[in-house]
Write a structure and sequence with these properties.
- There is one protein chain.
- It contains ten helices and eleven strands.
- It has two domains: about 30-115, Leucine Dehydrogenase, chain A, domain 1 (Rossmann fold, 3-Layer(aba) Sandwich), CATH 3.40.50; about 140-265, Rossmann fold.
- The strands form three sheets. The protein has a six-stranded parallel β-sheet. Strands 3-2-4 form a three-stranded parallel β-sheet, with helices on both faces.
- The protein has about 290 residues and is α/β, with parallel strands linked by helices.
- The structure holds NADPH dihydro-nicotinamide-adenine-dinucleotide phosphate.
- NADPH dihydro-nicotinamide-adenine-dinucleotide phosphate binds near residues 164, 189 and 191.
């Protein structure tokens, strides 16, 4: 019987755990965790994502600092705001909603966020730590995928993980995570020859291409664990993944639905990273108070 990996249910459990964790700190008299979210412009999809992140943060007791800036905001203005947030003691975490308008250099923005507040895990220092096998903040979507893979009880050691997509926010960090768990990893992209030959070898298949229904039953082997990151809107408005769920479901040992699989996990991972940043900041402040510098 195929296991349907329910990201919505798992995400609710994680949010409940985070809420308890934050409550324990508040009861000891600590300040609330602070998450700054920056949104440039009024792109409807980005606005929905940011609104959901703020709402969920509020639900778990994280204080939201909201910066909705006009699309004309200059790069200097944005970097100045980030520097200000980097230096504030009441803000543990900074999220800049991507994509940014084209007059702003995304890489410069990512590099300006203090790595200890980079809860998206995109800063080169955090990606470097992950690639070295010593992660601090792991990008939220692949981190959520890993929770789902673990819920499938799939054996990772020696498993063949095939990842479709090599973006910096999903494919590459996912590959590092799988390597760190001793899986053998294949990464595929647009120029991969004979994709089916690769996907049919997968014990664990993670798809993040943005191509609706790229993968059908003939592309996978019996008993595969399928994690579908893709969110694709069809012309009639239906949301589907990169995987044809109905076609593949009976062949898979476990599979994520779209929607309701990876999507809900991404927000809970952002908040898990935020609470981790908060705990790190509280711990380092206590250390400084206990051992004042001479
Ligand atoms: P990108 O567009 O940055 O990357 C897509 C990757 O897929 C690229 O590496 C590309 O190859 C590869 N690709 C595209 N077409 C094919 C193909 N036919 N065969 C093999 N590889 C292919 O996308 P993202 O990584 O940002 O996102 C991927 C998908 O995941 C999207 O649908 C996005 O909406 C969704 N997403 C969902 C999230 C969630 O929370 N559930 C979060 C983030 C993304 P190449 O490098 O050669 O161009």
């Amino acid at each position: 019987m195929t296991q349907i990996l329910d990201g919505k249910a798992m995400s609710s459990q994680i949010l409940a755990r985070l809420k308890n964790e934050v409550n324990e700190h508040l009861q000891k008299g600590s300040r609330a965790p602070g998450l700054a979210t920056i949104l440039l412009g009024k792109d409807p999809a980005s606005a929905v994502y940011v609104r959901n992140k703020r709402k969920r943060a509020d639900d778990v007791g994280i204080k939201s600092f909201e910066y909705d800036l006009p699309i004309q905001t200059t790069q200097i203005e944005l970097l100045t705001l980030i520097e200000d947030l980097n230096n504030r003691d009441d803000i543990d975490a900074i999220l800049v909603q991507l994509p940014l308008p084209t007059h702003i250099d995304t890489s410069t923005v990512i590099c300006t966020v203090n790595p200890s507040k980079d809860v998206d895990g995109f800063h080169p220092e955090n990606i470097g730590k992950l690639s070295l096998g010593h992660p601090r903040f792991i990008p939220c979507t692949p981190k959520g995928c890993m929770y789902l893979i673990q819920a499938s009880k799939a054996k990772l050691l020696g498993a063949h993980a095939v990842i479709l997509g090599r973006s910096n926010i999903v494919g590459k960090p996912m590959a590092y995570m799988m390597l760190n768990t001793d899986a053998t990893v294949t990464i595929c992209h647009r120029n991969t020859q004979n994709l089916r030959q690769q996907t049919k070898q997968a014990d664990i298949l993670i798809t993040a291409t943005g191509v609706p229904h790229l993968i059908g039953a003939d592309d996978v082997k019996e008993g595969v664990v399928v994690i579908d990151v893709g969110i694709n809107k069809l012309e009639d408005g239906t949301l589907v993944g990169d995987v044809d769920f109905d076609d593949v479901k009976d062949k898979a040992a476990a599979i994520t639905p779209v929607p309701g699989g990876v999507g809900p996990m991404t927000i809970s991972m952002l908040l898990e990273n935020t609470v981790a940043a908060y705990c790190n900041h509280l711990a380092s402040r206590n250390k400084h108070e206990a051992y004042p510098s001479l």
